[in-house]
C-alpha cells in the first residue's frame, strides 16, 4: 500500500492549548481584528512579517496568520471554536491594497486554512517594494455547514493488520494493539483511488482528511470506556494516532507542545487497560451548505523580518 500525496510531517501532542493569545513576536500589543458583516464571526491577526520573496529576492513578500472565532448569538462573547457542524474550508484573498492604492491581491503567493486550530494563513505573498503596512486587506473565508451526517461504525476491533476500514475519501488501519494503547493509521491508499474520486465528486469538502478522521473518531471499548487521542503524527499523505483510556488531570500544553513542569511521557502514566474488542465510530457528511464570510482589515502592519538584497 502506498500513501498518496506529499510527506511533509508535522507532529503534535494532544491537547494543544486552544484559543492562544496573539503571537508575542507580533508588531502590535492589541491584535488587529475584523468582524464579519453579520456579526457572527471575527478574524484576528496574530502574527505578521515581511521578507524577500522566495521566487525573487529583490521583491518583498508578506505573511500573516489569523485566528477565526465565532459566537452562538449576537449577545454572546466570541469563542475560539465554530458552531457544531460548521467547518473552515478555504480562504480567498480579494484585496491587498498598498498605500499607493494598487491592489496586489493577484500577485504570486500561498494561502491555506487549518480547520483543526481555526487558523487562516497568507504566506509569502508578493507585494513589490518593501512596505510598512497595507492600507486594506480583504479576506473571504468559506465555511461548510453540514446539514446531514452518515455515521460509520466498525465493531469487534481487537487485532492489528486486518484489511483497511473504508471511510469515504480515506481508509483506517489498526496498526498496533496493546493493553493500554491503540494505534490507528489513516490515509488515502492508491488502490482505492477511484472510490475516493467518486466520493470527492459527491462531497468536495477540503476538511475531510485523514487528520479529520483521527481527531474525530469515537472509540469505546467492551467496558464502555472512551478512548482519547493522546498523541499523533500527520503528513500530507497520511497520519497515525495513539489512543488510550486517560484518567486523572489532563495535561495542559502550550502551542509549541511543551508540557511545562510535566514531561510529555507523563501523559501515558494516567491510563487504564483497554477492554477489547473496541468499536470505532466516525461521522461523514451527506449534505452540506457553503457560506462565504468577508473580513476587511485597515492599516495592517508588516514588519521586516529579513531585508531585501
Can you offer a commentary on this structure?
- There is one protein chain.
- The protein is built from two helices and 16 strands.
- With 309 residues, the chain is mainly beta.
- The chain folds into two domains: 139 residues, Sandwich (Immunoglobulin-like); 142 residues, no CATH class.
- The strands form two sheets. Strands 1, 5, 8, 9, 10, 11, 12, 13, 14, 15 and 16 form an eleven-stranded antiparallel sheet that branches.
- A hairpin with a 3-residue loop joins strand 13 and strand 14.
- It is elongated and about 65 Å long.
- The N terminus is likely disordered.
- Keywords: Signal.
Order of helices and strands: EEEEEEEEEEEHHEEEEE
Describe the biggest sheet? 11 strands, antiparallel
Put simply, the count of helices is 2
Shape: elongated
Share of β-strand residues: over 45%
**pLDDT under 50 segments (min length 5)?**
1-30, 249-269
Can you give the helix content as a percent range? under 10%
Q: Helices and strands: which structural class?
A: mainly beta
Mean pLDDT: 83
Number of domains: 2
Q: Tell me how many strands there are.
A: 16
Cα distance spanning the termini? 46 Å
CA radius of gyration = 22 Å
Keywords: Signal
Signal peptide: 1-20
Amino acid at each position: 500500500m502506498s500513501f498518496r500525496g506529499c510527506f511533509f510531517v508535522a507532529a503534535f501532542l494532544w491537547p494543544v492549548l486552544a484559543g492562544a493569545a496573539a503571537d508575542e513576536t507580533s508588531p502590535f500589543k492589541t491584535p488587529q481584528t475584523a468582524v464579519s458583516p453579520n456579526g457572527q464571526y471575527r478574524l484576528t491577526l496574530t502574527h505578521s512579517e515581511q521578507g524577500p520573496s522566495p521566487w525573487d529576492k529583490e521583491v518583498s513578500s508578506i505573511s500573516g496568520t489569523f485566528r477565526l472565532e465565532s459566537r452562538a448569538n449576537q449577545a454572546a462573547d466570541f469563542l475560539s471554536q465554530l458552531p457544531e457542524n460548521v467547518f473552515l474550508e478555504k480562504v480567498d484573498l480579494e484585496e491587498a491594497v498598498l498605500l499607493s492604492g494598487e491592489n496586489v491581491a493577484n500577485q504570486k503567493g500561498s494561502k491555506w486554512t487549518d480547520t483543526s486550530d481555526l487558523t487562516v494563513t497568507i504566506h509569502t505573498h508578493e507585494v513589490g517594494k518593501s512596505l510598512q503596512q497595507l492600507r486594506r486587506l480583504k479576506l473571504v473565508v468559506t465555511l461548510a455547514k453540514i446539514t446531514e451526517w452518515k455515521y460509520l461504525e466498525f465493531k469487534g476491533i481487537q487485532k492489528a493488520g486486518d484489511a483497511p476500514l473504508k471511510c469515504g475519501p480515506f481508509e483506517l488501519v489498526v496498526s498496533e494493539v496493546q493493553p493500554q494503547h491503540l494505534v490507528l493509521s489513516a490515509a488515502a491508499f492508491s488502490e482505492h483511488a477511484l472510490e475516493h474520486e467518486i466520493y470527492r465528486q459527491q462531497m468536495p469538502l477540503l476538511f475531510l482528511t485523514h487528520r479529520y478522521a483521527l481527531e474525530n473518531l469515537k472509540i469505546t471499548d467492551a467496558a464502555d470506556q472512551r478512548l482519547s487521542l493522546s498523541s499523533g503524527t500527520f503528513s500530507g499523505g497520511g497520519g497515525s494516532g495513539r489512543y488510550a483510556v486517560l484518567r486523572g488531570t489532563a495535561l495542559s500544553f502550550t502551542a509549541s507542545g511543551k508540557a511545562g513542569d510535566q514531561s510529555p511521557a507523563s501523559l501515558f502514566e494516567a491510563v487504564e487497560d483497554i477492554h477489547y474488542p473496541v468499536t470505532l465510530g466516525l461521522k461523514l457528511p451527506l449534505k452540506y451548505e457553503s457560506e462565504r464570510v468577508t473580513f476587511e482589515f485597515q492599516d495592517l502592519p508588516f514588519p521586516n523580518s529579513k531585508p531585501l538584497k
